Amino acid sequence: MIDFPYIGDICQSTPSKVLMLVADGLGGAPHPETGKSELEVARTPNLDRLASRSACGLTTPVMPGITPGSGPGHLSLFGYDPVKYLIGRGVLEALGIDVDMQYGDVAARGNFCTVDDQGRLVDRRAGRISSSESIPLCELLDQIEVPGLDVRVFPVKDYRFVALFRGQGLGENVTETDPQVLEAPPRRVEALDSQGEKTAAAANALIEGVKEVLGDRDRANMVLLRGFSQLPQLPDFGQTYRLNPAAIAAYPMYRGLAKVAGMTVIPAGATFQEEVETLGRHYQEHDFFYLHYKPADAAGEDGDFDAKVEALEELDGFIPGLLDLEPDALIIAGDHATPSILAGHGWQPVPLLIHSKLTLGEGVEAFHERACANGSLGRIQATEVMFLALAHAGKLLKFGP
Amino acid sequence: MIDFPYIGDICQSTPSKVLMLVADGLGGAPHPETGKSELEVARTPNLDRLASRSACGLTTPVMPGITPGSGPGHLSLFGYDPVKYLIGRGVLEALGIDVDMQYGDVAARGNFCTVDDQGRLVDRRAGRISSSESIPLCELLDQIEVPGLDVRVFPVKDYRFVALFRGQGLGENVTETDPQVLEAPPRRVEALDSQGEKTAAAANALIEGVKEVLGDRDRANMVLLRGFSQLPQLPDFGQTYRLNPAAIAAYPMYRGLAKVAGMTVIPAGATFQEEVETLGRHYQEHDFFYLHYKPADAAGEDGDFDAKVEALEELDGFIPGLLDLEPDALIIAGDHATPSILAGHGWQPVPLLIHSKLTLGEGVEAFHERACANGSLGRIQATEVMFLALAHAGKLLKFGP
Known about the structure:
Number of domains of chain A: 2
Oligomer: homodimer
Shape of chain A: globular
Helix content of chain A: 25-40%
CATH class of the largest domain in chain A: Alpha Beta
Radius of gyration of chain A: 23 Å
Strand order of the largest sheet of chain A: 9-8-10-1-11-12-2-13
Order of helices and strands of chain A: HEHHEHHEEHEEHEHEHEHEHHEEHEH
Largest sheet of chain A: 8 strands, mixed
Number of helices of chain A: 14
């Protein structure tokens, strides 16, 4: 958790409820032609009205100039130092397809590739084969036996899959097999410390099995394995803040991140509408809810300014329903910016809104980057948001006599 | 470097170019009569137009209230924690006269003083003798032999000089000889740790030699030595950020600071005009340029508000030429404020401008302290500028998956 050693002394359990809506990729950047950001262009009357009665500001997810992935972006908002607690690439890929990872498991990102009869790479992505071709191949690989371990292979999408290694004494510090260039053979997995030896042996055994199973094929006859990683040991979110927290997210990766933090994941449908309905049904069962909204990020990643505007306007329509639940503290935050002009995640600070009965006299004229820069919260680290949320919900005691 | 342990994982070398113009003493403070700062009074149409299409903000060089010297001010902008990496007084004095310091050398600031026939101080600055008197004295001192070491004495200005000790096993932790009061004899140099013993012995041997060489004189017949220090071991700037960096600075101290960071120093003439011409000639050879502009600081140090305004207006005239080079990221920053009302360095935050193709929709109405305070960058630590510069030039990968 954020470096405040007395957190255990000041958090108190109360019946009050905190609702943290994380709008993925919420922040944007001004369009070079209009000088207005996606949030400035979007018609968001509900968010704007709410911002006029809320404490507003901007969050820095990691530090200026640093563009966070979804892992660090979310961990920061949950209060975890994103530089201290790392989510590996294999883990995130596994979480993203709802693999039930356990502590000690090692996950790797895999992809099919094509090698020639000398075993040298000729296509690092096997012609980007589609899921219809790769799913049966993953089923074959999933049956490869590695003595003493449970090794599983799960399809992700197209040529990508996850390899999961489960057993005693596995470590994550091993090398990757992708040589990054063509005409070289895939590398063997090498241990980088003694803990990694068993993982390296298992990964190499899997690769030997792949040769036997796929070796006769013309393409997608080999695999590359990268991003070997284990679940980090995070302080438990609920225990730390004395909360009974729940996560509602349509996308598996975000459910996975919440699970890593120790939140209860409530199953929901595939749309935000279904997420909100799920929230309503389970509202009495928890005192903290993390609710994830994906579409703004997806549009920003596509570099589609107008689609991002539309996604933000769509989100705006859900605000009255969330307010009807009367959460004691409503947080609207983003894990990072996804400016359409970058067509990807960005380093820009992200709008933040905290609404409680204590903020009714505060506010800014609208909910966007420029207005929030002048809000009463100023610019804060994303890791500090949880303290503000708890404070506004009356869950934090005075620090010191 | 700034405390971000994954910097090696996210920096990537690209052909894009970063130009960091450090306008020394850029920031100022409002004049008590007009309420306007030097930058607000100065007619700077080019900077203002640029600011309207740039990400602007204010930098804190060290922390609020702390006035940095040129060493910490520059190291911060280069991304080094100025509290962790210290440049000693002797080192800075040596760099300021272009002494070619090597790692392990110890430099001390020296000045001539006058002692009576009992060896007691009667004038700590020897009547502030001029360079014409001190230069021949330095030449005499430079010939003093200290067994086992190479000891050099270089004139600085008037009564000041640099003593340089080169040899194996020297340390910097030794006491100074200035008793700070008159009628006391200069102190002997004492080692503060075992590494300092050889330095102390050498410094005392030099002082014995000075007695022999200058003892018959009426004034300037002794020396005081202070600020013993060695080059700090800084992480290499180019290796850290994966850059091929170059420094262009008319004043030796700034070339020295760049050299300490591991930048290639490109020789230039004595004026900013010549610096800019040098930049143009060498623009294809590097992907990062540190360009130093001195006159604004010098005027501020003199407490000459109008001269500082003029120096800023002069700088403004160079902006179109710099833009013609089309750097992918242009940074205009200051190492510290030099408010004319202080007639010295100040602790005030310093205007910052970052211009890239991503900032065309951003901006403030003018380039001065008040406008930059409302800029999209907000107020950041100077140590964070490099990350933003690299991000805007597309040289930073995402942190975490």
